[in-house]
Amino acid sequence: MHYLLFIGAFIFFAFMAPLKLTIAVGALVLFVTVVVKISTQVVAGVSPTLGESFKSVFYASLFVALALLAYMSFFAGTGIHHVDGTPALLAMAGLFVAYTLGFQIGIGTSFGASAVVALISTLLSGSILWSVKGLAF
Question: What confidence score (pLDDT) does residue 131 get?
Answer without folding.
Answer: 79
